[in-house]
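Re: beginner question about structure tokens

> Can someone show what the tokenized structure looks like for a real chain? I only ever see the sequence side.

Sure, here's an example I had lying around. Input first:
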Amino acid sequence: MDFFQQFVQQLINGVSLGSIYALIALGYTMIYGIIKLINFAHGDIYMVGAYIGFFAITFGHWPIIPALLVSMAVTGLLGMLVEKLAYKPLRHAPRISILITAIGVSFFLEYTSMYFVTPTPRTFPDVFGSSSFNIGGFVLNSQQIFIFGITIVLMGILTYIVNKTKVGKAMRAASFDTETAQLMGIDSDKIISLTFCIGSALAAAAGVLVGIYYNTIDPLMGIMPGLKAFVAAVLGGIGILPGAVVGGIILGVIEALVAGFLSSTFRDAAAFAILILVLLIKPSGLFGKNTNEKV
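And the corresponding structure tokens:
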């Protein structure tokens, strides 16, 4: 395989991985956009979604699409429960208190899951087999095609909800100014709960897709992808939905290129190097705007 073919192949692999990062990053950026919270438990929500999909397929013998939908529904409810119990009582507390709580929720989900499912990694069912397609010398396997398709569908649904529905209009209003939105008759508590629900459901979908892609899951699988999705959200401009998508794709492509042409050892380092560069050069991200704040 010559350099050009290898480069394009790594781009394909990177877009597959970046699509997963984008789904997780959307949850980060939606939650931050409304309540300015960096939900570091989001990566563990993604892990729970992967396990729900795993059990639905392995023990329930469900097809992949129903298993994916059940995982999204249950994890969406879990996201709402976490928001009600852990974050809502601290809504007006200092941000550092909420941040520490998010870290605590993250550890709680990790080690509770470890207690119930054991720390042993599980092999995710091979729902597609080893079929692949050779298109002009480039290889696309069935897992990558499924990931592309599901990601596009979910992002399309989210775009429709945010831009074309009353709930989406209320989300945008709450994102702009939560207190004013509440004065105008919008139930901010309900909108925040729905935001956690949608973000958690997208993370669950990403968890199932990762299980399909890598064929393995474990209770600590959410730590690194969760951090990388945060990097993707910051790269695109945290709080901005298109930015999360673009940031996720860029991050996935850079990781694939680094792993393909340098060494897989530096793949994780590349992600955090990007975070440092963004914070140094353009802290607001690719799609963000610098805003002046009076103190």
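Each token stands for a local structural state, so reading them left to right follows the chain. The first helix runs from residue 3 to 35.
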